Amino acid sequence: MKINGTPYRSVWVNEKDGWSVHIFDQTRLPFALDVLQLTTPEQVAHAIKTMQVRGAPLIGAVAAYGLALALRTDSSDNALEQQAAMLAATRPTAINLRWAIERMLTHLRPLTPAERVAAAYAEAGRICDEDAAQNEAIGQHGLELLRTLAAQRGKNDKINILTHCNAGWIATVDWGTALAPIYMAHDEGLNVHVWVDETRPRNQGAALTAWELGSHGVPHTVIADNAGGHLMQHGLVDIVIVGTDRVTRNADVANKIGTYLKALAARDNGVPFWVALPSTTIDWQVADGVREIPIEERSGTEITHISGRDDNGQISRVQITPDGSTAANPAFDVTPARLVTGLITEKGCCAATPEGLLSLFPEQG
Ligand code: MRU
Question: How many CB atoms sit inside 10 A of residue 166's CB?
Fold first, then answer.
Protein backbone atom coordinates (compact mmCIF):
# COMPACT_ATOMS: atom_id res chain seq x y z
CA MET A 1 0.00 0.00 0.00
CA LYS A 2 1.09 3.58 -0.42
CA ILE A 3 1.66 6.25 2.19
CA ASN A 4 1.85 9.70 0.62
CA GLY A 5 2.48 8.03 -2.73
CA THR A 6 5.33 5.78 -1.52
CA PRO A 7 4.70 2.02 -1.54
CA TYR A 8 5.32 0.27 1.79
CA ARG A 9 4.91 -3.11 3.31
CA SER A 10 4.17 -3.45 7.02
CA VAL A 11 7.49 -5.24 7.65
CA TRP A 12 10.76 -5.07 5.76
CA VAL A 13 14.43 -5.92 6.15
CA ASN A 14 17.23 -3.49 5.56
CA GLU A 15 20.31 -5.32 4.26
CA LYS A 16 22.44 -2.18 4.54
CA ASP A 17 21.43 -1.80 8.15
CA GLY A 18 22.83 -5.09 9.44
CA TRP A 19 19.78 -7.06 8.25
CA SER A 20 17.60 -5.47 10.90
CA VAL A 21 13.83 -5.75 10.72
CA HIS A 22 11.62 -2.68 10.36
CA ILE A 23 8.00 -2.17 11.32
CA PHE A 24 5.67 0.76 11.91
CA ASP A 25 5.06 1.34 15.61
CA GLN A 26 1.30 0.82 15.63
CA THR A 27 0.96 2.16 19.18
CA ARG A 28 1.92 5.59 17.80
CA LEU A 29 -0.68 5.69 15.02
CA PRO A 30 -2.65 7.64 13.92
CA PHE A 31 -0.73 10.63 15.28
CA ALA A 32 2.80 9.59 14.29
CA LEU A 33 4.18 7.25 11.65
CA ASP A 34 7.28 5.99 13.45
CA VAL A 35 9.46 3.22 12.07
CA LEU A 36 10.92 0.82 14.65
CA GLN A 37 14.17 -0.96 13.95
CA LEU A 38 14.32 -4.42 15.54
CA THR A 39 17.71 -6.08 15.90
CA THR A 40 17.13 -8.85 18.47
CA PRO A 41 14.48 -11.54 19.02
CA GLU A 42 13.74 -9.99 22.42
CA GLN A 43 12.84 -6.72 20.72
CA VAL A 44 10.60 -8.62 18.33
CA ALA A 45 8.87 -10.40 21.23
CA HIS A 46 8.40 -7.10 23.05
CA ALA A 47 6.94 -5.47 19.91
CA ILE A 48 4.43 -8.31 19.52
CA LYS A 49 3.42 -8.40 23.21
CA THR A 50 2.94 -4.65 23.46
CA MET A 51 1.15 -4.55 20.10
CA GLN A 52 3.63 -2.21 18.47
CA VAL A 53 3.10 -4.80 15.77
CA ARG A 54 -0.21 -6.68 15.64
CA GLY A 55 -2.75 -8.38 13.38
CA ALA A 56 -2.68 -12.15 12.91
CA PRO A 57 -0.74 -12.44 9.61
CA LEU A 58 1.70 -9.69 10.49
CA ILE A 59 2.75 -11.08 13.88
CA GLY A 60 3.51 -14.39 12.14
CA ALA A 61 5.68 -12.70 9.54
CA VAL A 62 7.52 -10.53 12.08
CA ALA A 63 8.10 -13.51 14.39
CA ALA A 64 9.63 -15.40 11.45
CA TYR A 65 12.13 -12.56 11.04
CA GLY A 66 12.61 -12.62 14.83
CA LEU A 67 13.90 -16.16 14.48
CA ALA A 68 16.29 -15.06 11.74
CA LEU A 69 17.61 -12.32 14.06
CA ALA A 70 18.05 -14.89 16.85
CA LEU A 71 20.06 -17.24 14.64
CA ARG A 72 22.58 -14.49 13.88
CA THR A 73 23.78 -14.78 17.49
CA ASP A 74 23.43 -18.53 17.93
CA SER A 75 22.30 -20.90 15.19
CA SER A 76 22.65 -24.14 17.19
CA ASP A 77 19.83 -26.68 17.48
CA ASN A 78 19.18 -25.63 21.08
CA ALA A 79 18.98 -21.93 20.30
CA LEU A 80 16.67 -22.58 17.37
CA GLU A 81 14.16 -24.47 19.52
CA GLN A 82 14.39 -22.10 22.50
CA GLN A 83 14.01 -18.90 20.50
CA ALA A 84 11.16 -20.37 18.46
CA ALA A 85 9.31 -21.28 21.68
CA MET A 86 9.95 -17.82 23.12
CA LEU A 87 8.54 -16.08 20.04
CA ALA A 88 5.56 -18.44 19.73
CA ALA A 89 4.56 -17.68 23.33
CA THR A 90 4.17 -13.93 22.80
CA ARG A 91 0.43 -14.02 21.98
CA PRO A 92 -1.90 -17.04 22.23
CA THR A 93 -4.93 -16.56 19.98
CA ALA A 94 -3.76 -15.87 16.42
CA ILE A 95 -2.74 -19.19 14.87
CA ASN A 96 -0.63 -17.47 12.22
CA LEU A 97 2.07 -16.90 14.82
CA ARG A 98 2.47 -20.60 15.58
CA TRP A 99 2.02 -21.48 11.90
CA ALA A 100 4.89 -19.19 10.87
CA ILE A 101 7.21 -20.46 13.61
CA GLU A 102 6.42 -24.09 12.77
CA ARG A 103 7.09 -23.43 9.10
CA MET A 104 10.43 -21.84 9.95
CA LEU A 105 11.40 -24.79 12.18
CA THR A 106 10.45 -27.34 9.54
CA HIS A 107 12.63 -25.49 7.05
CA LEU A 108 15.58 -24.84 9.37
CA ARG A 109 15.91 -28.00 11.49
CA PRO A 110 17.46 -30.16 8.72
CA LEU A 111 20.09 -27.52 7.89
CA THR A 112 23.53 -27.14 9.43
CA PRO A 113 23.94 -24.20 11.84
CA ALA A 114 26.12 -22.44 9.26
CA GLU A 115 23.36 -22.57 6.67
CA ARG A 116 20.58 -21.37 8.93
CA VAL A 117 20.84 -17.58 9.02
CA ALA A 118 20.57 -17.02 5.27
CA ALA A 119 17.92 -19.71 5.00
CA ALA A 120 15.86 -18.11 7.79
CA TYR A 121 15.84 -14.69 6.13
CA ALA A 122 14.91 -16.26 2.82
CA GLU A 123 12.06 -18.29 4.33
CA ALA A 124 10.72 -15.30 6.30
CA GLY A 125 10.83 -13.34 3.04
CA ARG A 126 8.80 -16.04 1.30
CA ILE A 127 6.23 -15.98 4.13
CA CYS A 128 5.89 -12.23 3.56
CA ASP A 129 5.59 -12.51 -0.22
CA GLU A 130 2.99 -15.25 0.08
CA ASP A 131 0.97 -13.26 2.62
CA ALA A 132 0.89 -10.23 0.33
CA ALA A 133 -0.17 -12.40 -2.65
CA GLN A 134 -2.85 -14.24 -0.65
CA ASN A 135 -4.34 -11.01 0.60
CA GLU A 136 -4.41 -9.58 -2.90
CA ALA A 137 -6.32 -12.69 -4.01
CA ILE A 138 -8.71 -12.29 -1.05
CA GLY A 139 -9.27 -8.76 -2.27
CA GLN A 140 -10.22 -9.98 -5.74
CA HIS A 141 -12.66 -12.58 -4.41
CA GLY A 142 -14.22 -10.17 -1.93
CA LEU A 143 -14.50 -7.56 -4.66
CA GLU A 144 -16.89 -9.90 -6.49
CA LEU A 145 -19.23 -9.78 -3.47
CA LEU A 146 -19.17 -5.99 -3.47
CA ARG A 147 -19.70 -5.86 -7.24
CA THR A 148 -22.75 -8.08 -6.80
CA LEU A 149 -24.13 -5.77 -4.11
CA ALA A 150 -23.47 -2.77 -6.34
CA ALA A 151 -25.25 -4.46 -9.26
CA GLN A 152 -28.28 -5.21 -7.05
CA ARG A 153 -28.46 -1.63 -5.91
CA GLY A 154 -27.73 0.48 -8.95
CA LYS A 155 -24.22 1.53 -9.80
CA ASN A 156 -24.04 4.80 -7.90
CA ASP A 157 -25.88 3.75 -4.74
CA LYS A 158 -23.74 3.71 -1.65
CA ILE A 159 -22.64 0.32 -0.29
CA ASN A 160 -22.31 0.51 3.49
CA ILE A 161 -19.79 -1.95 4.90
CA LEU A 162 -19.26 -2.41 8.63
CA THR A 163 -15.92 -3.66 9.92
CA HIS A 164 -14.54 -4.37 13.38
CA CYS A 165 -10.96 -3.95 14.61
CA ASN A 166 -8.27 -3.57 11.96
CA ALA A 167 -7.85 -6.17 9.26
CA GLY A 168 -6.16 -3.82 6.84
CA TRP A 169 -2.71 -3.70 5.32
CA ILE A 170 -1.12 -2.71 8.63
CA ALA A 171 -2.40 -6.00 10.13
CA THR A 172 -0.81 -8.04 7.34
CA VAL A 173 2.28 -7.74 5.18
CA ASP A 174 0.27 -5.92 2.51
CA TRP A 175 -3.31 -5.32 1.33
CA GLY A 176 -5.08 -6.54 4.47
CA THR A 177 -7.81 -9.16 4.55
CA ALA A 178 -11.20 -7.55 5.29
CA LEU A 179 -10.08 -4.22 3.84
CA ALA A 180 -8.49 -5.59 0.65
CA PRO A 181 -11.83 -5.92 -1.22
CA ILE A 182 -12.82 -2.46 -0.01
CA TYR A 183 -9.66 -0.85 -1.38
CA MET A 184 -10.19 -2.60 -4.71
CA ALA A 185 -13.87 -1.63 -4.86
CA HIS A 186 -13.02 1.98 -4.11
CA ASP A 187 -10.26 1.96 -6.74
CA GLU A 188 -12.61 0.71 -9.43
CA GLY A 189 -15.15 3.39 -8.65
CA LEU A 190 -17.75 1.59 -6.54
CA ASN A 191 -19.42 3.91 -4.07
CA VAL A 192 -18.27 2.25 -0.85
CA HIS A 193 -18.55 3.70 2.64
CA VAL A 194 -17.19 1.98 5.74
CA TRP A 195 -18.63 2.05 9.25
CA VAL A 196 -15.54 1.66 11.42
CA ASP A 197 -16.14 0.21 14.90
CA GLU A 198 -13.84 2.06 17.29
CA THR A 199 -12.89 -1.34 18.81
CA ARG A 200 -12.38 -0.73 22.48
CA PRO A 201 -10.25 -1.14 24.43
CA ARG A 202 -7.25 -0.76 22.07
CA ASN A 203 -9.17 1.25 19.48
CA GLN A 204 -7.70 -0.47 16.44
CA GLY A 205 -10.70 0.70 14.41
CA ALA A 206 -10.59 4.35 15.47
CA ALA A 207 -6.80 4.59 15.28
CA LEU A 208 -5.70 2.18 12.55
CA THR A 209 -8.60 1.33 10.24
CA ALA A 210 -9.71 4.95 10.07
CA TRP A 211 -6.11 6.03 9.37
CA GLU A 212 -5.65 3.42 6.63
CA LEU A 213 -8.95 4.16 4.93
CA GLY A 214 -8.37 7.90 5.16
CA SER A 215 -4.87 7.56 3.69
CA HIS A 216 -6.39 5.71 0.74
CA GLY A 217 -9.28 8.15 0.36
CA VAL A 218 -12.01 5.64 1.23
CA PRO A 219 -15.10 7.32 2.75
CA HIS A 220 -15.63 6.09 6.29
CA THR A 221 -17.27 6.97 9.59
CA VAL A 222 -16.00 5.90 13.01
CA ILE A 223 -18.76 4.64 15.30
CA ALA A 224 -18.97 3.53 18.91
CA ASP A 225 -18.71 -0.22 19.21
CA ASN A 226 -22.32 -0.44 20.33
CA ALA A 227 -23.77 1.46 17.36
CA GLY A 228 -23.67 -1.35 14.80
CA GLY A 229 -26.92 -3.06 15.82
CA HIS A 230 -28.82 0.19 15.62
CA LEU A 231 -27.42 0.96 12.16
CA MET A 232 -28.38 -2.51 10.95
CA GLN A 233 -31.94 -2.13 12.25
CA HIS A 234 -32.26 1.01 10.14
CA GLY A 235 -30.97 -0.54 6.92
CA LEU A 236 -27.68 1.33 7.04
CA VAL A 237 -25.38 -1.69 6.80
CA ASP A 238 -25.33 -3.76 3.59
CA ILE A 239 -22.59 -6.17 4.58
CA VAL A 240 -20.22 -6.85 7.48
CA ILE A 241 -16.67 -7.90 6.62
CA VAL A 242 -14.17 -8.70 9.37
CA GLY A 243 -10.79 -10.41 9.63
CA THR A 244 -9.93 -13.23 11.98
CA ASP A 245 -7.17 -14.58 14.19
CA ARG A 246 -8.12 -18.23 13.93
CA VAL A 247 -10.75 -20.23 12.03
CA THR A 248 -11.41 -23.81 13.09
CA ARG A 249 -12.02 -26.69 10.67
CA ASN A 250 -15.72 -26.30 11.60
CA ALA A 251 -15.45 -22.64 10.49
CA ASP A 252 -15.87 -21.05 13.93
CA VAL A 253 -14.18 -17.66 13.87
CA ALA A 254 -12.02 -16.06 16.58
CA ASN A 255 -11.62 -12.33 16.15
CA LYS A 256 -11.32 -9.16 18.19
CA ILE A 257 -13.64 -8.95 21.20
CA GLY A 258 -17.06 -7.70 20.10
CA THR A 259 -17.11 -9.48 16.75
CA TYR A 260 -19.60 -12.06 18.06
CA LEU A 261 -22.09 -9.34 19.03
CA LYS A 262 -21.87 -7.89 15.52
CA ALA A 263 -22.57 -11.31 14.05
CA LEU A 264 -25.64 -11.71 16.30
CA ALA A 265 -26.96 -8.32 15.27
CA ALA A 266 -26.26 -9.09 11.62
CA ARG A 267 -28.18 -12.36 11.83
CA ASP A 268 -31.14 -10.67 13.53
CA ASN A 269 -31.29 -8.08 10.77
CA GLY A 270 -30.57 -10.25 7.74
CA VAL A 271 -27.24 -8.53 7.06
CA PRO A 272 -24.60 -10.78 5.43
CA PHE A 273 -21.64 -11.39 7.75
CA TRP A 274 -18.42 -12.34 5.90
CA VAL A 275 -14.99 -13.20 7.27
CA ALA A 276 -11.82 -12.66 5.20
CA LEU A 277 -8.76 -14.81 5.89
CA PRO A 278 -5.66 -16.28 4.33
CA SER A 279 -5.41 -20.07 4.73
CA THR A 280 -2.59 -19.50 7.25
CA THR A 281 -5.33 -18.48 9.70
CA ILE A 282 -7.09 -21.86 9.58
CA ASP A 283 -6.34 -24.18 12.50
CA TRP A 284 -7.15 -27.61 11.09
CA GLN A 285 -6.37 -29.22 14.48
CA VAL A 286 -9.26 -27.52 16.23
CA ALA A 287 -12.99 -28.06 15.68
CA ASP A 288 -14.99 -26.25 18.38
CA GLY A 289 -13.78 -22.67 18.56
CA VAL A 290 -15.62 -21.68 21.75
CA ARG A 291 -14.17 -24.58 23.72
CA GLU A 292 -10.77 -24.95 22.12
CA ILE A 293 -9.36 -21.59 21.03
CA PRO A 294 -7.27 -19.93 23.76
CA ILE A 295 -8.47 -16.39 24.33
CA GLU A 296 -5.84 -13.85 25.27
CA GLU A 297 -6.49 -12.01 28.55
CA ARG A 298 -4.79 -8.64 28.44
CA SER A 299 -4.10 -6.17 31.21
CA GLY A 300 -7.06 -4.50 32.88
CA THR A 301 -5.25 -1.17 32.48
CA GLU A 302 -6.28 -1.26 28.81
CA ILE A 303 -9.87 -0.92 30.10
CA THR A 304 -9.30 1.47 32.98
CA HIS A 305 -7.13 3.88 31.00
CA ILE A 306 -7.28 5.41 27.55
CA SER A 307 -4.72 7.32 25.47
CA GLY A 308 -5.21 10.02 22.92
CA ARG A 309 -4.07 13.42 21.73
CA ASP A 310 -5.07 16.33 23.93
CA ASP A 311 -5.96 19.82 22.74
CA ASN A 312 -2.31 20.85 23.06
CA GLY A 313 -1.25 18.15 20.63
CA GLN A 314 0.32 16.01 23.36
CA ILE A 315 -0.36 12.28 23.68
CA SER A 316 -1.87 11.71 27.13
CA ARG A 317 -3.09 8.68 29.01
CA VAL A 318 -6.00 9.16 31.37
CA GLN A 319 -7.93 6.97 33.79
CA ILE A 320 -11.65 6.52 33.04
CA THR A 321 -12.80 4.23 35.87
CA PRO A 322 -13.09 4.83 39.62
CA ASP A 323 -10.08 4.05 41.79
CA GLY A 324 -10.40 0.48 42.98
CA SER A 325 -12.67 -0.88 40.22
CA THR A 326 -11.25 -4.05 38.75
CA ALA A 327 -11.37 -4.64 35.01
CA ALA A 328 -11.41 -7.81 32.88
CA ASN A 329 -10.03 -7.73 29.38
CA PRO A 330 -10.63 -10.77 27.16
CA ALA A 331 -9.11 -9.65 23.86
CA PHE A 332 -10.96 -11.96 21.45
CA ASP A 333 -14.23 -13.83 21.13
CA VAL A 334 -15.48 -16.68 18.98
CA THR A 335 -18.30 -16.33 16.49
CA PRO A 336 -19.89 -19.73 15.87
CA ALA A 337 -19.89 -20.79 12.22
CA ARG A 338 -23.73 -20.78 12.12
CA LEU A 339 -23.65 -16.96 12.34
CA VAL A 340 -21.16 -16.54 9.49
CA THR A 341 -22.54 -16.11 5.97
CA GLY A 342 -19.29 -17.12 4.32
CA LEU A 343 -15.51 -17.06 4.26
CA ILE A 344 -13.37 -15.15 1.76
CA THR A 345 -10.02 -16.86 1.24
CA GLU A 346 -7.25 -16.66 -1.33
CA LYS A 347 -8.76 -19.70 -3.02
CA GLY A 348 -12.22 -18.13 -3.31
CA CYS A 349 -15.35 -17.79 -1.19
CA CYS A 350 -17.02 -20.67 0.61
CA ALA A 351 -19.75 -21.47 3.08
CA ALA A 352 -18.71 -21.32 6.73
CA THR A 353 -18.94 -25.08 7.14
CA PRO A 354 -16.42 -27.94 7.28
CA GLU A 355 -17.52 -28.94 3.77
CA GLY A 356 -17.14 -25.38 2.52
CA LEU A 357 -13.57 -25.18 3.79
CA LEU A 358 -12.69 -28.60 2.41
CA SER A 359 -14.09 -27.66 -1.00
CA LEU A 360 -11.33 -25.02 -1.20
CA PHE A 361 -8.63 -26.97 0.65
CA PRO A 362 -9.29 -30.64 -0.25
CA GLU A 363 -5.73 -31.60 0.76
CA GLN A 364 -6.83 -31.15 4.41
CA GLY A 365 -9.51 -33.82 4.15
O1 MRU B 1 -5.21 -7.71 19.01
P2 MRU B 1 -5.00 -7.47 17.54
O3 MRU B 1 -5.06 -6.04 17.17
O4 MRU B 1 -3.74 -8.14 17.05
O5 MRU B 1 -6.24 -8.17 16.87
C6 MRU B 1 -6.35 -8.15 15.48
C7 MRU B 1 -7.62 -8.68 14.97
O8 MRU B 1 -8.47 -9.11 15.71
C9 MRU B 1 -7.77 -8.72 13.49
O10 MRU B 1 -9.12 -8.61 13.13
C11 MRU B 1 -7.23 -10.05 12.96
O12 MRU B 1 -5.93 -10.25 13.42
C13 MRU B 1 -7.25 -10.13 11.48
S14 MRU B 1 -5.91 -9.18 10.79
C15 MRU B 1 -5.93 -9.40 9.12
Answer: 32
CA angle 251, 57, 23 (to 5 degrees): 160
Given its phi and psi angles, is residue 2 left (phi above 0), alpha (psi -120 to 50 degrees) or beta? beta
106-156: per-residue pLDDT in tens? 999 999 999 999 999 999 999 999 999 999 999 999 999 999 999 998 767
Assigned domain for 138 exists: no
pLDDT in tens, 144-192: 999 999 999 876 799 999 999 999 999 999 999 999 999 999 999 999 9
Residues 158 and 76 in one domain: no
Are residues 54 and 166 part of one domain?
no
56 is in an annotated binding site: yes
Number of domains in the chain: 2
Q: How far away, in angstroms, is 50 Cα from ligand 1 center?
A: 14
CB under 6 Å to ligand 1: residues? 54-57, 94, 165, 167, 171-172, 176-177, 204, 243-245, 255-256, 331
For the annotated catalytic residues, the residue numbers are 245
User: What ligand 1 atom has the least distance to the C-alpha of 202?
Assistant: 3
Domain that holds residue 309: 153-364
Would 147 be classed as within a structural domain?
no
Give me the sign of the Cα torsion angle 57, 129, 99, 274: positive
CA 181 – CA 148 distance, rounded (Å): 12
Q: Binding residue per annotation — 126? A: no
pTM attached to this predicted model = 0.98
- 166 and 219 fall within a common domain: yes
Of 99, 130, 161, the position where a domain reaches its end is: 130
Whether 141 maps to a domain, the answer reads no
351 among annotated binding-site residues: no
